[in-house]
Write a structure and sequence with these properties.
about 260 residues, alpha/beta, Rossmann fold, 9 helices, binds NADPH dihydro-nicotinamide-adenine-dinucleotide phosphate
Length: about 260
C-alpha cells in the first residue's frame, strides 16, 4: 500500500494562488494529488503569475497542476472550470472551497455591497462549486468536499456580521449536503480555522492584533500548513467515516 495519503487523486482548490489555499495545494500535491489551482483576475494584482508559481511548485513535487481562472461568484465560469478540470485530469475526487474575502465594518456602517460581496464569494461561491461537482461525484460514488469556514462563524466578531454569516452559512450548507450524499460515498466537511498568518490577517491593525493574540490559548497565530494538515486528513481514506463535521484548527481559541 502507498504511504501517500492522496495518491492518484485529483483536487480543485479555490483561491489556491496564495495563503491557506496554496498551502493546501502544496500539501495535497506532496501526498500524491494532482491539483487544479483556481484563481481570480483582480485589478492591481498579478494573480495569474501567483497561480503559475503555485503550479510550478506543484510540478516540482512531481504532480500535475492546472491553473484555472474563475470568479466563484459566476456560476457559468465555475461550471466551465469544473468541466475543464474533469477533462484534464479525467476525474475530480476532491473539492476544497477555500476562496474567501472580508469587508469588515460594524453593522451601522456596513453597506449593502459589503454584505452582498462577502456572501457572494464565501457562501454562494461554495454553492456554485459544490453544485458543479456533485453530479460527477455522485456518478463515481466517491468525493470529498471540504469548505474553509472560520472560528468567527462559531464565536462572532465585532465588525464581521457579513463574514460570520457567510462562514456560519457554510456550516449549515455542509451538514445538509453531507446528509444528501452520505450514501453516495461522498463526505462533506468544514474546517474552521482560528487566526492564521496570511495576507488576510496582515490586514488587521497591529494594535487590534496585539489584543487578539493573548486570547489564543496557544499564544500565537496558526500557519497555513496547520489548516492544510487538517484538510489532508479529511480528504484521506482515514476520514472515510467522517461527514458533516466541523474541524476547528484554532490554537484553542474556541472550544
Ligand atoms: P487570502 O486573502 O490570502 O486568500 C484568499 C484567496 O481567495 C485568494 O487566493 C483569492 O484569489 C481567493 N478569492 C477571493 N475572491 C475570489 C473569487 N471571487 N473567486 C475565486 N477566488 C477568490 O486569505 P487566506 O488564505 O487567509 O484565506 C483562505 C480562506 O480561509 C478564506 O475563505 C478565509 O475566509 C478563510 N479563513 C482565513 C483565516 C485567517 O486567519 N487567515 C481564518 C479563518 C478562515 P486570488 O489570489 O486569485 O485573488
Amino acid at each position: 500500500m502507498s504511504s501517500l495519503a492522496l495518491e492518484g487523486k485529483s483536487a480543485l482548490i479555490t483561491g489556491a494562488s496564495r495563503g491557506i489555499g496554496k498551502a493546501i495545494a502544496l500539501r495535497f500535491a506532496a501526498e500524491g494529488c494532482d491539483i487544479a489551482v483556481n484563481y481570480v483576475t483582480e485589478a492591481g494584482r498579478d494573480n495569474a503569475a501567483e497561480a503559475a508559481q503555485t503550479a510550478e511548485e506543484i510540478g516540482g513535487l512531481g504532480r500535475q497542476a492546472l491553473c484555472v481562472e474563475a470568479d466563484v461568484t459566476d456560476p457559468l465560469a465555475v461550471e466551465a472550470m469544473v468541466a475543464n478540470v474533469i477533462k484534464t485530469f479525467g476525474k475530480l475526487d476532491i473539492l476544497v472551497n477555500n476562496a474567501g474575502i472580508t469587508r469588515d465594518r460594524t453593522l451601522k456602517k456596513l453597506a449593502k455591497e459589503d454584505w452582498d460581496s462577502v456572501i457572494a464569494v464565501n457562501l454562494t461561491g461554495a454553492f456554485h462549486c459544490a453544485r458543479a461537482v456533485i453530479e460527477h461525484m455522485r456518478e463515481r460514488q466517491y468525493g470529498r468536499i471540504i469548505s474553509i469556514s472560520s472560528v468567527i462563524a462559531q464565536m462572532g466578531n465585532i465588525g464581521q456580521t457579513n463574514y460570520a454569516a457567510s462562514k456560519a452559512g457554510l456550516i449549515g450548507f455542509t451538514k445538509s449536503l453531507a446528509r444528501e450524499v452520505a450514501r453516495r460515498g461522498i463526505t462533506v466537511n468544514v474546517i474552521a480555522p482560528g487566526f492564521i498568518a496570511t495576507e488576510m490577517t496582515q490586514a488587521i491593525l497591529p494594535d487590534i492584533m496585539a489584543q487578539i493574540v493573548p486570547t489564543i490559548p496557544m499564544g500565537y497565530l496558526g500557519q497555513p500548513e496547520d489548516v492544510a494538515n487538517a484538510a489532508v486528513f479529511l480528504a484521506s481514506a482515514e476520514a472515510s467515516y467522517i461527514t458533516g463535521q466541523v474541524l476547528s484548527v484554532n490554537g484553542g481559541l474556541y472550544m
